[in-house]
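Annex B. Sample input.
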Amino acid sequence: MSISRSFKGPETAKKQMRGFSSVISFDIKGGFEAGKQLVKEVKLISESTYIGSVETLVQHPASMISSETPMEERLMAGITDELIRLSVGLEDIDDIIEDLDQALTKI
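Annex B, continued. Sample output.
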């Protein structure tokens, strides 16, 4: 899929915003239980079922999916036990890093 050259989204965003947020994904050592624990241990960052806000949000998709969803279907969708999704918001980056650091040390 390609984006039309006439699409002005990036230019409009640059005019309207001073910064951009981002969604990143990473795997956490320790699998399913470590993922569940991470989202419980963060303090500044909020656990959320959706991604996209001005605040930093975190998801552990494997623990949010119905237990009735077969592992094979989850893996086909890229949802491993280790997957963490982080939507970076407008908070100070050092505060976000500090929150993740303190949570990770408890796992």
